[in-house]
Write a structure and sequence with these properties.
Beta-lactamase Inhibitory Protein, Chain:B, domain 1; signal; alpha+beta; Beta-barrel assembly machine subunit BamE; 4 strands; 4-stranded antiparallel beta sheet; BamE_dom; membrane; BamE-like; about 80 residues
Length: about 80
C-alpha cells in the first residue's frame, strides 16, 4: 500500500470516528432543549421540513441518524438509529 493510500485511509477512519451522530450526543438530547443548542451539539442538520410551527430535522444517513421534532423551536421528541 502506498503512503498516499495509507494517509487517505487514516483520514477516512479519523473522520468517521469524529462524527457527531453518535450515542453519546444522542444521550445529551432532552425534551424542551432549544433548537440552537441541538445544532451546537450535532452541527447543521442534513435535512429539515416543517409547517404550522412544527419542524422535523434529521442528521446522518440511512444507516445512522438522529431525528428531532420541534414545536416552536424547542425539542418535542427525538429518535435515533444505528448509533455507536
Amino acid at each position: 500500500m502506498s503512503l498516499r493510500s495509507l494517509a487517505l485511509l487514516s483520514l477516512c477512519v479519523l473522520l468517521a470516528a469524529c462524527s457527531k451522530i453518535n450515542q453519546e450526543n444522542y444521550s445529551k438530547l432532552q425534551a424542551g432543549m432549544p433548537k440552537a443548542e441541538v445544532e451546537r451539539l450535532l452541527g447543521s442538520p442534513t435535512e429539515c421540513s416543517g409547517a404550522l410551527g412544527m419542524t422535523s430535522c434529521t442528521w446522518g444517513d440511512q444507516k445512522a441518524f438522529i431525528s428531532v421534532q420541534y414545536a416552536a423551536d424547542k425539542v418535542l421528541m427525538y429518535s435515533g438509529q444505528g448509533l455507536k
